[in-house]
Amino acid sequence: MDSLLAGIALATQGTTLLYLMLGVLLGLWFGAIPGLGGVTAMILVLPFTFGMEPQAAFALLLGALAVSTTSDTISSVMLGIPGTIASQATVLDGHPMAKQGRVLTAFGAAFTVSAIGGVIGGIALAISLPIMTWLVLTFGAPEFFVLSLIGLVMVGGVSGNAIGKGIAAGALGLLLSQIGYPVAASDPRYWFDQMFLIDGLPLVPVVIGLFGIPEMMQLGTSGGALASQRFEKAEDDSLMAGVRAALANRWLAMRCSVLGTYVGMLPGLGASVVDWLAYGHGVQSAKDRSQFGKGDVRGVIAPEAANNATLGGSLIPTLAFGIPGSGAMAILLGAMTIHGLVPGPAMLQQHLPLTLSMVVCIILANIVGAGALMLWSKQVARAAFIDGNLVVPAVFVFLVMGSWIGQPEILTLVALLVIGLLGFALHAAGWPRPPLILGFVLGPVMENSLAITAQAYTLTEVLSRPSILILIALLLLIFIGAARAIAKRRNDFKIEIGASASRGSLMLSLALGIGCIALFVWAFDQAQEWSFLSRVFPMAICSVGAVVALGCAVQDFRTLRRYQPTGAEDTLAGFWRHHRREVLIFVIFAVTIALVPVLGLAGAMLAFTALYLLGWGRFGWLTAVLYTAGVGAFLYVVYHRMLHVPFVPPFFLS
Amino acid sequence: MIQGRLKGLIATSAIVAAAALPATAQVIDLEGNTVTIVHNASPGGSTGLTAQLAADAWTQTMAGNPTMVVQSVEGGALARGILQVMNARPDGRTIGWVAWQGSTRILDPEDRQIPFQDFGLIGGVGGMTFIAHTSAAPDRGMNEPADLPNLEHYRFGGYSPRSGPAIRTAVAMDMLGVDWSFVSGMSGDTPLEAARQRGEIDGYPVTAVYYQQTMRDGVVADGSDIPLFYFSPPNEDGTGLSVDPNLEGILPFDQYFTQVTGAAPEGPGWEMIQYHARVTDPINWLVVAPPGTPEEHLAMLRESFAEAVQSEEFQTRAAELLGQVPTISYYEDVQAIVDEIAATPEAMRDLQREYIARMER
Q1: Dihedral through CA A630, CA A632, CA A638, CA A643, nearest 10?
Q2: B119 near B146, Cβ under 8 Å?
C-alpha cells in the first residue's frame, strides 16, 4: 500500500503531471492523423527524456502512447481510415455511423469504453505485477501458434455473409505476409529482387491503403459531405447517447477490455490484432447481428474497449522480462535503459513506486484523454459536414506521408496505391476487406511460432502442455460456434456496406476469384524449391486459398449465369459508368505519386493539393492558395522540422 | 520586371549548380545546417540510443556545430539504412551509424553485397563479447562447464543462422564433439532468455552486457544457468582470444577448449573463430560518410568523432546505457577490418556457408 501511495504521489507531483498532460496532448494529436500514431509521438519526444527524472520521462512517453488509441477513433469514424493500426475494426461500424449522421454517438461510445479499457488495462497490469514472470513463461511458441489460429478463426466474424470470399481474402493477406525473409532460412521469398520487399510489405501502407484510398476515391466523387445527414437532425445523436450505449453494453466492453489486456501481453500480437479479435467476439456474442457493418454501435464499443487495454497488457512482458511486445514497448525499454532501469524482478523490488507510477499514468492519461475528446467532439464532428472535396487533398497527403515516414522510398507509395486499388476492387466486388488485414498481421506471428515450435518441440511435447490443451479446446469451441452460426445463417449480414450486387460487381468478383487462383498456384509453385520451414506455411496457405477461391469463382459463375438484370444500367458498361469517376481520382493519385521523383515529395503534394482544389473541386483561387499554404506549412513544421522526415528533392536538385 | 526575373533565375541556377556539383570546398560548411545520423535499427534500441548520445557529443566538436538529428531506417536485414547512406549525397548532411555484420554479409549473393570499402570510413563503436551458456540439467549430467562435452545434445537459439555468434557457437560445439541444433526466429537477449527459461532452448550466445546486468546475479547465481566460455577479440599477440577482466570465472573459448580436451584448438573451425574475433567482435557499429565525401571533410569528421566519443559526457552516458564504456575504433583500425573482410579467402566463405546451411531448415 505504501508503494502504491508512493506511486500515486510520483505520478501526480507537479512536474510529472505536467509532462503527462503534455504527452496526452501530443498523443491525441498524433493519434488523430492517419499514419502517425503514438509510436511516432514517442520517437519524437524520446531524446528529450534523456535528461529528465525517470517518472517525468515515463509520464511523457506513456501519456503520448496511451491516448493515441483513443483519438485514432476520430479518423476511423470520420474518414473510414484507421487512425492507427489499433483502430482498424472501428472503421467497419464507426464510419457507417458517421455517414448516418451519428458521429457524436459513435464518439461518445468509443471514448467512454476507451477510458474503461485503459483503466482496466492499468488495473490488470497492477494486479499482474506479482505473477508477471509466470505469465510470460507460460506462453511459449506453441501457445502463440494456437492463439494465432484462434485469431484466424475470427475471419468468420469479420466476413459477414461472404464467408468463402472472407477466407480467400484472409489467405491473400496471409500470402502477402510471406513476402521477405523467412524465419529459419536466409533467402527471401516472393521479393522479385527488390530491396523494398526483402523484409516484406510494410504494414502502414497496407492498412491505410486498403481502406483510405478507396474511401477518398468515393468521397471525391460523391459531390457532397462525408455524412449524408446532419447530426443535429439524426435521431438521438449525442455524446450522451453514445455514453448510454456504452453503459448498456458494459459487459461487452469489460470482456473486450480483459481480452485486450491479455492479448496485449503477448509479444507480436498486441494492438494490431486485438481490435479484430474483439470485433469478432462482439459479432459472435450478439444475438442480433443484422446491423453489424451498417453502423452497429457494438462494432465500435468492442474494438475501442480492447485497443486501449492493450497498453497495460503489453507493459507486463516489458517490465517483467524486458521483452518488448511492440515498437512502442521497444522505445519504452530504451528509455528505461537510458535511466539505468533493468526490467525484471528489480523493477518490483527496487523500483516498485516507479513501476506503480506508470500504472497510475496510464489510468490518468486514459481518463483525461477521453474527457478532452468528449469536450472537443462537437467541433470535430462538424468536419463531417464540410465539402468532401475539401477533405480529400489533406487526407491524401496524410496517407502519403503516413506511409512515407516508416519507409521513405517511392516504392512505399507505389505499394500504397496498389493496395488501395486492390481495396477498391474488393469493395466494389463485394469481398470483405478485414480478413485480408487479419491474415496480413497474423501471418508473421503464426509462421514464427510454427517455425520455433517445429525446431524446439516434438509433437508429444506440444500436446502434453496443459496450456495447449486448454487453448485447443477454446479454439474448437470458437470454431464450432462460428460454424453453427454459419449453418443457421445467423451471419446473414454484410460486413461492409458496398455496392449492391450487379452484373458488373459479380464479374469483378469472378475476375478476383480467378486472379486469386492464379496467384495461389504460382506462389505454390515458387515455394516448392525452398527449405522445409520456408515452404510449408506458404504452401499450406496457397492450398487452402486456391481451393476456396475456386469455390468462390464457381459460385460467382453460376450466379452470373442465372443472373437477371435489375435495370437498363445493370450492365458492365453501367458498372463502369458508376465507378469511372472513382477510377479517375485514382489516376490523379497515381499521377501525383509518379511526379514525386520529378517535383520532389513536397512539390508533388503541394501541386496535387492546389490542382485538385482548382480542377476537381472547382474552388476559387483564394481557397486553393490558402489551403495549399496550410498543407505546406504542416509538411514543413510537422514532418520536416519535428519528425525530420527525409523529403525527396525535385529532380533538378538531386 | 523581366530583369528581376532573370536575376532570380540566375541566382536560382547558381544555387542549384552549387548543390548539384561535388563539393570542391574541402571542409563543408555546416554552420546553421542539420546533419542526420542514419542508423539501421528500430527506434529505441541500443543502436539508435547510442547514436543519439554520440550526436549530442558530436554536435559540439564538429566544425560549424551543426544541429544533429538521428533517424532510424530499419529493415532489409540491416541493409536499408546502409544503402540509404550509400546513396546519400556527399554533402556532409548525412552520416551513417550502422550495425553492419560485414563478416557474414560477404556471404550474400553478389547482387546483395555492400561495398563497405566505398564508404568514407570514420570510426567504429562498441566491441562485443558473447558468452555461450546452458541451462543446468543434472538429469542430463550438466552440472558445471566441464560437463559440456558429455552433453548428448545442445539446442541453442538466435535470430538467424546468418549471425556471427550463432555460427561460432555451432563451430565450437563441433570442435567439442557436441551434437547441436539451432532454433531461429528469436531476436534479442531477453526473448532468448525467456525461451531458455521456458525450455525451448538450452542456451544462446548472450552479450556480455546482458550477462552482467541480468544473468550473473540472477540465474547464474541461483545455479539454474551455467556460463561455458566466451568469444572475444584477439589477444595482443594474436595467438588466441583476449581475457575479459569483467568476466571473472569464465574462460575465453581457446582456454576452455584446452582445459576440457587437453589440447590447443586448431583446424578450420578455430581459424573461423579467430577470423570473427578479428573482424566481427571489435566493432558493433560502423560510423561512415557517403561515398564521395571530400577527403578533408572526412579528416574533420574523423577528428571530431574521436574528440566526441572520448569526451567524458559521452563515455559516462554510454556506460550507463550499455553497461560498460564502449570500445572505440578509429579510422586506421576500421579500414584494416573492412579490407580484411573484403579479402576473405573463399575457403573461409565456404565454411561459413556450410554452417549456415546446416543451421537452416
Answers
A1: 170
A2: no
As a whole number, mean pLDDT of residues A379-389 equals 82
In a domain, A224, yes or no: yes
Q: pTM for the complete prediction?
A: 0.86
Which of A349-358, A529-538, A636-645 has the weakest average pLDDT? A349-358
Nearest CA-CA partner of A122 in A361, A306, A370: A361
144-163 in chain B: CB under 8 A from chain A: 155, 157, 160-162
| B43 CB within 8 Å of a chain A CB | yes
CA distance A307 to A260: 6
Distance CA A417, CA A435 (A): 19
Asked whether the beta carbons of residue A331 and residue B43 sit closer than 8 angstroms, the reply is yes
**What pLDDT band is residue B5 in, cutting at 50, 70 and 90?**
very low
User: CA-nearest residue of chain A to B75?
Assistant: A199
B360 closest CA partner among A446, A194, A454: A454
Report the helix count and the strand count for chain B, using DSSP H and E. Answer: 13, 12
> Is A399 a domain residue?
yes
Rounded Cα distance between A162 and A177, Å, is 22
Q: How many domains does chain A have?
A: 2
Q: What is the mean pLDDT of chain B?
A: 88
Strand order across the B225-231 sheet: B206-207, B130-135, B225-231, B251-252
Same domain, A336 and A443: yes
Residues 6+ apart with CB under 8 A from B241: B230, B231, B232, B233, B234, B235, B252, B253, B254, B255, B273, B274, B277
Residue A623 has pLDDT above 90, yes or no: yes
Looking at the fold, whether A503 and A609 belong to one and the same domain comes out as no
Check if B111 contacts A (Cβ < 8 Å). yes
User: Could you read off the pLDDT of A275-299 as tens digits, one per residue?
Assistant: 888 998 898 888 888 888 888 999 9
Looking at per-residue pLDDT, the higher value among B6 and A524 belongs to: A524
Q: What pLDDT does residue A222 have?
A: 80
Residues A417 and A357 both lie in one domain:
yes
Q: Of the segments A329-333, A482-486, A496-500, which one has the largest average pLDDT value?
A: A329-333
Q: Do A185 and B79 touch (CB under 8 A)?
A: no
Distance from CA of A146 to the nearest CA of B (A): 17
Percent of all residues in chain B with a pLDDT value above 70, rounded to a whole number: 93
Cell numbers given for A420 = 488501395
Per-residue pLDDT of B256-283, as tens digits, reads 999 999 999 999 999 999 999 999 888 8
Per DSSP, the residues of A186-210 read SS-BS-TT-GGGTT---HHHHHHHH
Query: How many angstroms separate the CA atoms of B173 and B170, rounded?
Result: 5
Minimum Cα–Cα distance from B94: chain A residue: A646
3-state SS, residue A47? helix
Domain enclosing residue A644, as ranges? 595-653
Q: Which chain B residues have a beta carbon less than 8 Å from that of A338?
A: 49, 320-321
For residues B275 and B280, give the distance between their C-alpha atoms in angstroms, rounded to a whole number: 8
Question: Nearest-CA distance from B186 to chain A in Å?
Answer: 8
Is residue B357 less than 8 Å (CB to CB) from chain A?
no
Helix, strand, coil shares of chain A as percentages rounded to 5?
A: 75, 0, 25
- Comparing alpha-carbon positions, the chain A residue that sits nearest to B47 is A334
Q: Report CA A244 to chain centroid distance, whole Å.
A: 26
pLDDT band for B167, please (50, 70, 90 cuts): very high
Q: For chain B, percent helix, then strand, then coil, each to nearest 5?
A: 50, 15, 35
The grid coordinates of residue A516 equal 486469386
Chain A, residues 254-273, CB within 8 A of chain B, namely: 267
Domain architecture of chain B: domains with CATH: 29-127+282-347 (3.40.190.150), 131-280 (3.40.190.10)
Joined together, the cell numbers standing for residue A179 give: 513476402
